[in-house]
Design brief:
144 residues; 2 domains; two-stranded antiparallel ribbon; 6 strands; 46% helix; binds zinc ion
């Protein structure tokens, strides 16, 4: 994932997306190629939207990511979103975190990487995910 791809995703969520409960991010469009690109970054698939509108002849599609993956993505693109969506994302992440097991009972990081001895690092906040840490460090380096 490059900083450019992240910025692009944030722009799509800002422009065409909606964020709903359970940390679900949905992007709707009639441009299948655009949604395909998002789907490959989110490692999911594009779904057709049924009964979208009788007025619009164009078929509509959507791509969605939810649960821990949605929350992970929300946290990742949060700083790139506009004020209104940021407020909404914060609310949803807060709610989603309340549904999580206690930190010592979690078996995976918010992005879904399993916690094993080899994939876990100590941070000043406690247990951290090596994969996410490395990714964050890489993005930071690239942004400079
Ligand atoms: Zn992780």
């Amino acid at each position: 994932m490059t900083a450019t791809q992240l910025g692009w995703i944030a722009g799509m969520v800002e422009g065409e997306g909606c964020i709903t409960k359970n940390a679900k991010i949905t992007v709707c469009s009639s441009d299948l190629d655009v949604l395909d690109k998002i789907a490959s970054l989110w490692r999911t698939t594009v779904q057709p939207v049924k009964n979208y509108s009788q007025l619009s002849k164009k078929p509509m599609y959507r791509v969605a990511v939810g649960g821990k993956h949605g929350a992970g993505w929300l946290m990742t693109i949060w700083s790139l979103l506009g004020e209104r969506r940021r407020t909404k994302a914060k609310e949803i992440i807060k709610h989603w975190l309340l549904l999580l097991p206690a930190p010592q009972d979690r078996t995976q990081c918010p992005s879904g990487h399993l916690y094993t001895l080899a994939s876990t690092v100590r941070t000043r906040f406690g247990r951290g995910c090596r994969t996410c840490n490395n990714e964050a460090r890489r993005l930071k380096r690239r942004a400079v």
